Structures
1.
Amino acid sequence: HNPTTLWNQMRNMHFYTSTFALISTFQSASSLNVIQNFFKGGAKPAINLASSPISKVDVWKTELLSAVSNTENGKSATLEQQAQVLKIVGDIEEACPPPETLLSDPDVACKLDGCWYLQYTSPSELGSEDQFPDAWKPATKDDTPENKITTKRVGLSGGVSANGINVDTSNRVTAQIIDVKNSQVANEVGLDFGKVRVAGSFRMSDVSPRRVVVAFNELKITLDQLGGLELNLGFIFAALALARGTSDSGWLETTYLDDDVRIGRGNKGTLFVLTKDPDAVQP
């Protein structure tokens, strides 16, 4: 097999996620009515918590993992399902946000450590601010290096993006490995032909105490069909950093965290749901 041909095939097959179908559905008033109904409440099943030792957050977590199941990491989720997930996530974020010492206190930050499995991605917003005034909004601050990081929405579902390189993660094992002590993060996606690994360093944001700014510098593709041949393409990130005038690739804010589930919001308007157990949801 020719590595160049394989590389071109990979780019064509895996390194983009189409959002035209999702965008086109926004034009339908009936679709907007469906998702707005979820944010008005009442769509979730009634649960009697008075006689149960389970907390509201525990119940919402169970509902969340059920809601994201069978959506191919969010790629096949309907607008109604996306709205349901966003409603549950909003309730969890409001009820139990991480402490502001999440990244500054080692005893708290250690909860981020280890291998997390990506179970769901979708846009953080499904309409305009007028339609969803209570939708999550990132904190901003003038005169900070983070302003060079693009916040252009990509409308990504069932995929991840690193410096404009989009990888389809639907029906694929996608792991995020965090090393808090050494301020390192890596994303690994298993694909039909091998594995893609994107990694780099991170630092605490100047804008939000729960946000990390990531600088990717490693892009490695392993080709199983060629005996595990590794293609090191980190120079792509170096070139992008030179063109933009910053090595900062993006940011990720942790909006909920416990021993089992992590919820995050990205700079390109994407919601992420991750679990420590790779089999916590049905793919």
Note: The two ends are 31 Å apart (CA to CA).
2.
Amino acid sequence: HKHDENWALLVAGSKGWFNYRHQADVAHAFQLLKRGGIPEERIIVMMYDDVAHSPFNPYPGQLFNRPGGSDVYAGIKIDYRGKDVNATNFLAVLRGNQTAVMGVGTGRVLKSGPNDHVFVYYADHGGPGILGMPEPPYLYADELNAALEDKHKAGGFKKLVIYVEACESGSIFQGLLRSKSNVYAVTAANSVESSWGTYCPGMGKPDPRGLNVCLGDLFSVSWMENGDSANLAEETLQEQYIKVLFRTSKNLTYTLGSHSMQFGTFCWINQPCSEFMGNRDSNNTGILGFVDGIHIPQRDANLAPLVYAYETAPLGSAERQDAYESLAAVYKAREELDRAVYRVAKIAYALTANASADMLHQVYTILTAKDFGDASKQIVEDWDCLRKLIATWESRVGVLGEYGMQYSKVFAKLCNMGVNERILQSAILQAQSEGTIKGSTTWGQHVHTSISR
């Protein structure tokens, strides 16, 4: 397979120092593909790029994706930075719509054709049916799948592989990605669970550089460390998936891990990984990768530096008190969001035309349940409804943020129950009058403190 027939699109969907791991993941992916022989001019990178040069970074201009690992930022070519990393531009780049990104970043798009192989990798926070971006709005599952379908119909690839690192990432393709799409998707988690951060401070093998952030994500480092050490000209996509599955699930125990999932076209997954990630000769670094059994749910990974600072600071010190106050503020904000969402949801359901007394008693149980019913179907029947409900909440109450993205589950279920944006607005107003919602808040985002390193 000729590498001039390969294209790749790598996306880090977050920003901020405590989200270090996502940009480190994407930088590592760039290095892996480049070493594998994929030409730089056919690797498109979207990254906010505020971490390597962050004032918090004790190693300016460097990123590390594993304890003691090499700098993965060196030599990276970034096409879209800062506010240019958003859902609209991502979809345009994926579709190959150069007009839509004219004058933006490098303006490069996937110009792949009917005989080309494409590899897409995304890393960030997510929620049921949505993926995060550094700039609003969210990337919705129906939009991503429509772009993949459009690309396929336009002869934009022969085969496309997409790996997605995010919480509830299985919901992005569940019931949406066709088996005849010539797209093979692998996700870090199913549609109802968190994905996991790894190589975090105070957990497992310590980072000799003393970085106080999670360096990677479990699913991501699993496939990339495999790619660094395996013979990808011999290892198939399915064989890699099995290895990733075992590592992300802690040998199928799922005690500290998630259910990595497969979607789409399976008829060619016994082809070598090198068809999409490059060949072994330049890929094999001799890095075998180690299995660190201690991980942390993605939404709590941003808190790991604060927890570590609290646990390691001297008793009675200002640093310990600072960490304690920051953690307390985060947990208080999260609790406020938890209460607000479920109170508003219950009011909203009561305002629908089909509300019943029996259902009112059960609605909290239904809304808090992890599952959506049929695991083979998409999580919401009306995606425009989901967009409108989330937009209504965020404009009237506050941005959901990285922690609150999980509540797209509740809004999806409300859509399926017949709630529209008008009803949700009325429910929000009622909850505000009760004092359940006390105004816009950061909803449990990380609190910036003097603890930076």
Note: The two ends are 45 Å apart (CA to CA).
3.
Amino acid sequence: GQVTRTKNYKMPEQGTTEGNDGQQRSKGTVWQQAARAYFYVVVWMSISMGVILFNKWILAYSGFKYPIALTLWHMVFCTTIATILMRVFKVTKRLKMPRKEYVSRVLPIGAFYAASLWLSNSAYLHLSVSFIQMTKALMPGLVYFVGIIFRTEKYHGLTTLNMFIIAVGVAIAAYGEINFIWIGVIEQFSALIFEATRLCLVQILIKNKGYAMNPIQSLYYVSPACGLFLLVPFLTVELPEITANAGLVIDWKVLILNASCAFLLNLAVFLLIGKTSALTMNIAGVIKDWMLIFASQHLFHNTVTFLNYLGYVIAFLAVGMYNMIKLRQAKKAEKDGAAASDSSDKK
């Protein structure tokens, strides 16, 4: 530890130059922290929006209509880069995870992740980016209800009412959707359910067992498992179609750029949560969804109706209320923890 020297040291009096310098430094530090937080938010939002619009363009407009192949390619690319970073450049250490633990903990997460990515990418073939972003307002509710099933969340009447309002908002948006295609809607909602289940499994199987993973480690362990589960549907469903499509031209430069963006998005997520908070990411995510709705409307000429906007505004406000409730609960838990710590110290 550091040795504090007190001999011949006088605290600066109020109004002295040293005291003012300290205040200026503290103000400067606050502004620097705020600027850094905004920087990470902007980076994450930009990359996330870029990946979503990029995937939509590849699957719906470039002629490469193979969502399983695209998702599997992302997993192969991320596994390769993560392996090189860990094994060759030693950027981060491997976890001490026995093979049995990997099979029982990581493989189930990889299975749900594969299903979520496969179905969400498939939805881009049928639905507009704007409508897909509106349906994502259901995620807090799905995570909440799946959490109750897995006992990672407790039932609260107010939270349940809040989730019901979100569902009503999304239902109104869906009712007002002009390009409503059932197969796309089923794929998107199924993807959200699989993703909510995956998030709960990460909490139960990884975090609660003491396996804290940074993004490189997550990609190193989860991407191969995800790719494994994507391999079977790729070989049986899409590979015969790809080989039979004589006119298909695969632009590897575009696919490498797309996979690089997907890899960077994982790093950006870690930086945003690590340097700010999960709540900041949720709020930034809502803003990002609004921006994507407008961007998709102009880039891909998606028609967004009044009912779309009305439903999403209702869901948007309910999601904001949910975030406020979670913030209050976190602050209360922090205060209770501090109070318990103080009482135990006095004893």
Note: Residues 1-15 have pLDDT under 50 and may be disordered.
4.
Amino acid sequence: FGPLHFFLAFRPPPPSPSLLFFFVALLCCILASTCESMGKDKYSVILPTYNERENLPLIIWLLVKEFEKCNVDFEVIIVDDNSPDGTQEIAKQLIKVYGEGRILLRPRAGKLGLGTAYKFGLEHASGNYIFILDADLSHHPKFIPEFIRVQREEGCDIVSGTRYRGDGGVFGWDFRRKLTSVGANFLAQFLLRPTVSDLTGSFRLYKREAFEKVITKVKSKGYTFQMEIVVRAQQQGMKIGEVPITFVDRIFGDSKLGANEIIGYVKGLLYLVFTS
């Protein structure tokens, strides 16, 4: 009477068909629930534009390509501030190409500020995740899969692109422009002590609920909007991750950065110093 005889004598009876069916059904429900929760994710891209006629077709093509590569649901919301160069006409043609469910045009009466453009776009977004980036091709959509990966793995409320960490960098700027950018970021880092390395960057991914919560605290409308939203997010204990990106200077069109924007940046920075 060896071990084999003992096993054969005392092995448990096979499960009944009803019990087996129960466990199979339970497993199917768990898998279906997991797939459904993943399938519910939708990414809304808010794309503010002003005189981006040449850049818009290419940035839209790149966005569609990257999101399809990720196999996720998405939409692109073009918030145009009454561009005189025909940007809205190009947007309407792109809607015909990609469909109204993918590309949405939401025009405004004029230039009302970058921060208000994001707030306006959020009102028309249907996704539970929000991407913001520049329409001038300075932010390449090829980094989108990495943003999504970091957010999912680390559970971040915000994922911010950085030019100043890891493989991040800037190409196409002259020395004066690079010095201005580095100086502005260094000053912000010194005065505000943020947890991110690129406080002035504008390539980001937000959980919708986080974006909706923090944006109500933001008063800035111009380029300091990006700084303030990180500062307010930190005050509310939100988790912020980073993805190194390569920033490339625009090929078509003119830069929106001028003396008024620089003065506004300094004013906004001082405002944040005394309110954070």
Note: The chain is about 50% helix and 15% strand.
